[in-house]
Amino acid sequence: MEKGYTSNARGALIVLEGLDRSGKTSQSRKMQSYLEERGFPVESWRFPDRNTSVGQMISAYLTNKSQLDDHTIHLLFSANRWEKRSLMETKLRTGTTLIVDRYSFSGVAFSAAKGLDIEWCKAPEMGLLAPDLVVYLDISPEKAAERGGYGGERYEQLEFQQKVAQHYQILRDGSWKIIDASLPMEDVEKQLKEVVLDCVTTCCRGKSLAQLWSH
Ligand code: Z5A
Ligand code: MG
């Protein structure tokens, strides 16, 4: 075992958050390759996970093939995380780092942007695993909209993204790492590598797993 690593060594739960087109998926891939090259077991995950049956209901909603009450879709997004919780814990405890593209913060920011009560939105997320690191890829909704144009999915509208950005501001705490996502991709990647490696190293040293929003 490498110096400083303990028998409690585990993988890190690293979450990337940000508006549509902020670069989350591009950077997740880059971080996966970076950690793999350094010999760390790592997987890239994303939410929603559209492969499960709950995920298929979410996908139908996002592509405007179905209509759902705002509370109902909120709970489905949360259920989609709960159905992966135990696998997530197993992976982390057996040493695999997870780079997760969107998590509970998206869940709350998007539903609260529709007008749902923020505390109500947080409640079903309580007890999910707390990330070891949340990186917010910070870009203005206007600048993000210039990237490749929005597609036809629900929520991909400038005015709505502005409201989502306001709710991310409310959710942010001092532990989040904020990276200017309007910089060239390589510059974002460089900053991300530093915080990601630091986090993975801390978890290898046996940092304990925590739960989200438990008081
Ligand atoms: N949602 C929810 O309501 N509740 C929940 O609980 C969860 C999600 C989990 C689907 O998400 C929707 O579900 C989402 C939130 C909601 N709705 N919206 N909006 P998704 O993950 O499937 O989709 P997305 O992540 O929002 O969109 P995206 O297009 O995949 O964005 P991205 O991953 O952040 O960006 P990207 O694919 O890496 O990059 C986008 C483009 O920009 C691409 O052409 C890149 O080459 C370019 N790019 C990236 N970085 C740069 C830089 N630095 N410079 C220049 N160009 C760049
Ligand atoms: Mg994406």
Describe this structure in words.
A five-stranded parallel sheet has the order 2-3-1-4-5, with helices on both faces. 47% of the residues lie in helices and 12% in strands. With 215 residues, the protein is α/β, with parallel strands linked by helices. Ligand Z5A is lined by residues 18, 20-26, 46-48, 62, 77, 101-102, 106-107, 110, 147-148, 155-156, 181, 184-185, 188.
SSE order and pairing:
Blueprint: E1 13-18, H1 24-37, E2 42-46, H2 53-62, H3 70-93, E3 97-101, H4 104-113, H5 118-122, E4 133-138, H6 141-145, H7 158-171, E5 177-180, H8 185-204
Parallel strand pairs: 1-3, 1-4, 2-3, 4-5
Bound molecules: ligand Z5A and magnesium ion.
Ligand Z5A is lined by residues 18, 20-26, 46-48, 62, 77, 101-102, 106-107, 110, 147-148, 155-156, 181, 184-185, 188.
What distinguishing features does this structure have?
215 residues, alpha/beta, five-stranded parallel beta sheet, 8 helices, binds magnesium ion
Question: Percent of residues in beta strands?
Answer: 5-15%
Question: Using DSSP, what is the number of strands?
Answer: 5
Order the strands across the largest sheet as they lie in space.
Answer: 2-3-1-4-5
The biggest beta sheet is recorded as: 5 strands, parallel
Element string (H = helix, E = strand): EHEHHEHHEHHEH
> Ions, cofactors, ligands: which are bound?
ligand Z5A, magnesium ion
* N- to C-terminal distance: 35 Å
What structural category do the secondary elements indicate? alpha/beta
Report the uncertain regions.
Answer: none
Shape: globular
Give the averaged pLDDT, no decimals.
95
